[in-house]
Structures are given as C-alpha cells and as structure tokens.
Amino acid sequence: MKIFQTTISLRQRRRGFHLITDEVLSALPEIRQIKTGICQVFIQHTSASLTINENADPTVRADFEMFFNKAVPENDPEYVHDYEGSDDMPAHLKSALLGASVSIPISNGKLALGIWQGIYLCEHRDYGGQRKLVITAWGD
C-alpha cells in the first residue's frame, strides 16, 4: 500500500465554478505510481466546495452558478449570520449542499474520471481568497 499526501493553495478565483483537475494532478504526480486506488481531494474552507461534473462546455459551469444563486439567494432577511457580507451565509449553505471533498478511483496511475468529467472548485464568495486543498492518494 502506498500513501501520498500534499496540501496546495489555489490562487484566488472569482465567484463561480472552476475546473481544477490539472492543478490536482500537477500537485500529486505520485498518483502515477498507484495501479489501483483512491484519490481524495478535500477543501479546508466552509464557503467554497468541490464537485465533479462536465469538463468541456463552459456553459455548464455558468448554469451551475445561475442555479445555485437562485436556489440560495443573497440578502435573505432571515439570515442571522451575515458578519462578512451578503454572500457569507449563502456561501456556507452552497458549500454544505455540494460538500467539502470528492473521491476518485485511480486506475493504472490515472484518475478514473469519465471522458467528460472534471474536478470543480466551487467558489461561492465574491472575494474568497486563496483556497487550500489537501490531496491524498492511496492504493497498490
């Protein structure tokens, strides 16, 4: 059993859904040493999240942003937690809906993503800053 782990800081991105698959792979090239295993990517934040979805057509990412903004609107007068602005509590809710981690099988030294799949950083804040990821891969 081989286990590899690294922590990386992603550059600040604007609000939206951003493909980060290449950054994950670049950060942990040891994945190539694993024939069969798992890669987990975990985000150390509560106002951004991760998911896996369409990696080719950027309109999918725009539609994700549109949907989540409608589903979890800003400026709801019933929000109590608003210390950091009108996007604060909605960002926490969006993060809770999507989740803080993704797990991807590793097959023959590569992430076993489908042909149209990629890892998204889901930035839910207008000014979220750099985001830290812990990437762990294990297997034989």
UniProtKB/TrEMBL annotation:
Signal peptide positions on this chain: none
Alphabetical list of Pfam families matching this protein: YjbQ
InterPro entries reported in the protein's UniProt record: UPF0047_YjbQ-like, YjbQ-like_sf
Family of this protein: Belongs to the UPF0047 family.
Protein name: YjbQ family protein
Organism: Pedobacter psychroterrae
Source taxonomy: Bacteria, Pseudomonadati, Bacteroidota, Sphingobacteriia, Sphingobacteriales
